[in-house]
């Protein structure tokens, strides 16, 4: 993400922060409580914050690797830092966040058995791929799971629990 985009996001976060008020139960505005801060925002500021989340997700391929909830949580952490200390170097904090997201390479594969569904070809539902499984694929998955389990840092007690699965 370019420095100009980071600066624009920082300026928008500062604008949102300027609209923060102490919680007032009768006002009907959005209450927020996270990362040690508790405040209230007008609805247009809440929408502006969500638009910043969407803007970050549009960067590179972040929308493919991160959920809106994840990015919102990370941005709220930066926002809380701004509310706690208005002298924070907001651009550096945002650069660190974007840098962390740029470097994130973890991919997760979850294998689970689904009973009662008969598939003849692979089917994709959202970001989930359902694939028919034969004995050779099942054996391959078991071997891969066994290798991952045996090479994990967990002790024998934890490993023995999963060996029975």
TrEMBL record:
Name of the protein this chain belongs to: Uncharacterized protein
Species whose genome carries this gene: Azotobacter chroococcum
Organism ancestry: Bacteria, Pseudomonadati, Pseudomonadota, Gammaproteobacteria, Pseudomonadales
């Amino acid at each position: 993400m370019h420095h100009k985009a980071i600066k624009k996001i920082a300026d928008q976060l500062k604008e949102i922060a300027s609209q923060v008020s102490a919680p007032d139960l009768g006002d009907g505005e959005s209450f927020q409580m996270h990362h040690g801060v508790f405040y209230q925002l007008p609805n247009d500021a809440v929408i502006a914050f969500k638009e910043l989340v969407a803007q970050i997700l549009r960067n590179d391929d972040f929308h493919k690797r991160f959920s809106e909830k994840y990015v919102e949580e990370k941005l709220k952490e930066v926002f809380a830092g701004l509310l706690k200390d208005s002298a924070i170097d907001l651009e550096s904090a945002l650069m660190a966040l974007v840098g962390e997201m740029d470097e994130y390479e973890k991919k997760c594969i979850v294998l689970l058995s689904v009973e009662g569904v008969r598939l003849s070809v692979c089917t994709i539902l959202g970001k989930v791929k359902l694939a028919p499984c034969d004995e050779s694929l099942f054996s391959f998955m078991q071997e891969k799971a066994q290798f991952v389990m045996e090479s994990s840092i967990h002790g024998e007690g934890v490993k023995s629990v999963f060996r029975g699965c």
